Amino acid sequence: MRIRIGQGIAFGLLMMTTAALAQSKPVAGEVAEGSLKGKTLTFVSYGGIYQDGQIAALKEFVDKSGVKLLSDGPTEISKLQAQVESGNVTWDVVDTGDFPPYVYCGKLFQKLDFSKIDTSNIPEGQISECSVPAMNYGVVLMYNTEKYKDNPPKSWKDFFDVEKFPGSRALEGSGDLSGGMIEQALLAAGGSVENMTVADIDKAVEKVKSLGPDTIFWKTGADSQQLAESGEADMIAMWTGRAMTTVKNGAKYTPVWQDWLVVMDQMTIPMGVKDADAAYALINAYVGKSAQETLAKTTSYTPIHKDAKPQVDEVTAAFMTNTPDKLKLGYQQNIKFWVQNFEVANEKWNALMAGN
Amino acid sequence: MERADGGQLGPLPVAASATGSRDTGPAAAADDRWRWFRGQAFWLVAPALLLLVVCLGLPLAIVTLRSFSEPQWGWQNYVWFFGTPVNLTVLQRTFAISAWVTLVCVIAGYPYAYVMTVVGPKMRLVLILCVLVPFWVSGVVRTLAWVILLQDSGVINSVIRSLGLGPVKLIRTQTGVVIGMAQVLLPFMILPLYSVMKAIDLRLLQAARSLGASPARAFAQVYLPLSLPGVYAGAIIVFILALGFYITPALLGGPRSTMLSTLIQNQVLSLLNWGRGGAMGVVLLIATFILLALAAPLSRQPHKTGSRRQ
Prior knowledge:
The complex is a heterodimer.
Chain A: H1 2-21, E1 40-44, H2 48-57, H3 59-65, E2 68-72, H4 77-86, E3 93-96, H5 100-103, E4 132-144, H6 156-159, E5 169-172, H7 179-188, H8 198-209, E6 216-218, H9 221-229, E7 235-239, H10 240-248, E8 253-268, H11 276-286, H12 289-299, H13 314-318, H14 324-329, H15 335-340, H16 342-353
Helix pairs in contact in A: 2-12, 7-8, 8-16, 9-10
Chain B: H1 2-7, H2 11-20, H3 27-40, H4 46-69, H5 76-83, H6 85-118, H7 121-132, H8 139-150, H9 155-162, H10 174-197, H11 203-210, H12 215-243, H13 247-252, H14 260-270, H15 274-309
Helix pairs in contact in B: 2-3, 4-15, 5-15, 6-7, 6-10, 6-12, 10-12, 11-12, 12-15, 14-15
């Protein structure tokens, strides 16, 4: 009953504001002067430099709209679920990993009203029914240049070929599965990613197992960086941000951009937030050009505004993933498949992670 | 003997038995007051009890309930748990790692606690500080320090290599996890051991020696049995704490040292499957209870013989 009333109110609010906003189409990065005075928004993300950068990117929005912006985190879907189930949602805008807005669309996350967000400058294929991207990054193959002098690996296929390219491997084992990685393993095993089936996941998992018992599954970004800087693993699948930092720190590793895995964080609005319009205003400001440039400058993640040109140093620029040549080489996972098979895929991946 | 043992429990029973023998005169009023006070003494535990019920009992009840109620009522989550081989492997591994950690803690902690009882007060303070300082350092920081020590290019391996021996695989193995966990849990073994050992009258050993026992025999027949309650108390604390470890195995271990808490975390945080996560927690809890019930008679036996010899 409570939910139904909540939905009713939300719907009513939606109708009212749609009418009010019908005349003015939103422009990314813009917010009306003093429009959110006296209101409070809680923005939730993953903490650290990343969230600091996001808050910095939102400074203009805060100053202009007069909103009071609170910061919370880290994002945990289970906590959000508890809030939604108890009808007491205190998180207004939530930054999540790539899958949750697809898996819990309409359950934990609102279906977005795209008349309230200017999405015209967001790269293609990154918007879903319940989310817009928060930033882009990638997973690249980093290899030890001293180990593979004249015969460096050129693709994920080489990564999965321990006979032609002997040496230790490290890949992400931080919890959630990486669909793109499993697809690359499947391709390396001679499979096809067209019309993937659940049996294909087994095939891919077998391929990962074939890397041998010394394969390292790193748990955190810092962990992966440590592996490169100490030379523990000869080939490492790494997040671009961490890869960049290791290069800056002098590790003798270099990236392979062929089929780098496209990854993104998502901006979402939970079900049952008290003021959805304020949340929309935040997201609309966040996807603006100057906000995205600030974000890129402070975090080194790739902006999601097509025209954003952040002032960054050479190494950071080399790891930005939105240049035309990199976009050409990027590999987009089959999100639909992984969302449909979320549970079974996780079970198989977790069994691998648990040494079975 | 029995009386003296009872007396050690606290002042209240002593007072009661002392007044119980006199039932006339002005002492009767005091006796009444005592009885009243003893009746009310229960309330002294109320704050702690309340905290336990609200912060432990209630959440535990909810978790147990959800393990039966989600997604539908029934045993499905338990059927799933015992029908999935990886769960059983990890459950068994969780107990095995905890047992190893406990063993390492006993072996490392016993002599340490003994030394603490025989050195001078200044040295004792140093030894206690050595045990407590790690307590004040964040678990994550300590674990990361172990990463640096244990990794293939780490401190330990470079020492081994300089001795002309091959590198030893320490990080991402069960050995590495056991080493890291034992270091974190060692204080929980040393402190109960120390508190028991310092109460042992060392003159008993002298008596044994003067009666012709060899040092080894005096230790095995006098000191060891008297110190066993400390060993059991420490071992139980260490073992139970080890069962729930999460950060250390995640950072120092590889897939082959994943413990149950990691699987629970996966179910609840990644898959929002509170039912299965709850079932795993309940299974771990019950398995622990069963194990403790099996170990309980073991820990009671030496205590009795120990006090009889006293």
